[in-house]
Amino acid sequence: KYRAQLLEPSKSSAAKGEGFDVMKSGDARVALIGFPSVGKSTFLSLMTSTASEAASYEFTTLTCIPGVIEYKGANIQLLDLPGIIEGAAQGWGGCHLAGLTLTGPNVPCPRRALLEKELESVGIRLNKSKPNIYFKPKKGGGISFNSTVTLTQCSEKLVQLILHEYKIFNAEVLFREDCSPDEFIDVIVGNRVYMPCLYVYNKIDQISMEEVDRLARRPHSVVISCGMKLNLDYLLEKLWEYLALTCIYTKKRGQRPDFTDAIILRKGASVEHVCHRIHRSLASQFKYALVWGTSTKYSPQRVGLTHMMEHEDVIQIVKK
Ligand SMILES: Nc1nc2c(ncn2[C@@H]2O[C@H](COP(=O)(O)OP(=O)(O)OP(=O)(O)O)[C@@H](O)[C@H]2O)c(=O)[nH]1
Ligand SMILES: [K+]
Ligand SMILES: [Mg+2]
Questions:
Q1: Ligand 1: which of 32, 42, 45, 228 to mutate, judged by most atoms within 8 Å of the beta carbon?
Q2: Where in this chain does the record put each TGS domain (predicted)?
Q3: Which of 11, 33, 35, 203 has the fewest CB atoms within 10 Å, counting from its CB?
């Protein structure tokens, strides 16, 4: 709690999603976070048409440099950031993926933990989903506590103590998952940012095969070498997977689908999302849609607004 209070000014800007001082562009945004000289700028220059100065001395990059990766018809904005130092993580909202870069030769594990700790302290949760706790502050009636699972880390007493710390005396709380006290606090505070993260170990040309193998097996990890252009294709594939993007193609009646201009949406998008992307008022004029692709049993299939789209589906919208 005290740490949160100390970090209050920087935390609120992070939570509001103002983000870095660059124009948001493209379909998704990836921030490159890492210690100085791990190769973030080298990576940006290699993958995008933007050149970001790289050098062997630390803190070469002093501002946020954006670049764009074109992949599978999507524009992915990549942000090259100054090397992180303790207490420097800020302005994180609005990003869809954290690409943490770590480098080979020196023991990487404590460095990974240090970066995670840094981001944790400003309210960013990596590769975690929002705790499954129902929480609703009330005007009166005290605290009602329930759980649908056996709790091993929290009890009714502890939950009450925590709520009182936050000056909440009336609320409804339902644990649907065996959460920790910290996770419960995240729910009360409510402004946490949940973000997928890929740990990228660069400069594998400088370490032994055994070490490369060990790093590659760690969860959420990809090993690369910008210097020798190793494993970059695989990194792009993983990036795509972690961003969970979906390409949808549109088709006009009696014409072939337009495969040159995909609509890029987050995974789990419905026909209604597609409509909104095409035109603000399209959903209200919607009659039905024909969909070809893996989301339907047969192609084409007549579907409604709530139908869930899948990657590379083709859609034809019929208006009233
Ligand atoms: N051996 C090797 N060197 C690399 C690799 N990638 C980058 N480097 C070198 O590492 C040094 C630092 O690279 P930068 O791209 O400046 O690193 P950065 O993370 O942007 O550093 P800051 O902006 O200072 O935080 C440069 O001398 C690069 O040439 C790699 O895969 N292998
Ligand atoms: K550098
Ligand atoms: Mg740099």
A1: 42
A2: 244-319
A3: 35
